[in-house]
Predict the 3D structure of the following.
Amino acid sequence: MSFLIAATEPVVRLTPQARILAAILAIAFMALILDLIRRDKLLERYSIVWFVLGIGMLAGAIFPGLLELLAKALGVRDVTIALFSVTLLVLLALSLNFSVIASRQSKQITRLAQQSAIDGVEEEAAAVRPGEPAQGEKKAPPEQVPR
């Protein structure tokens, strides 16, 4: 009977070396995020999500008991399944978020291109004064006035 109870409890099987490696990778990930911000490759508003994920990776490496709590909360026996499930959900959420942002920016680009075309036509019309030919038209030769 105790065998069945023990099999249902989530168990974290991280060796100290694996935990150290996971912590180093999490710190390197957060350093990469900071470097991308510094080089203006990543906006601060998007970096917050990635930095929070890095902190979550570091917390999971330092405190493996958090992984057990996650597995219990999700109702799974294996911690790796819980991590995989949460990772998949986070990536799906990020993908949806970035799709919404890309759609919004696409609409803005279309609107800006249309406004730029309208502004160009208005500037061209304002540049043409009465009596002067528009661009592309040849100016008529001046008429000879008798003296």
Remarks:
- The two ends are 125 Å apart (CA to CA).
- Helices lie at 2-8, 16-38, 44-62, 64-74, 79-127.
- The CA atoms of residues 10 and 78 lie 5 Å apart.
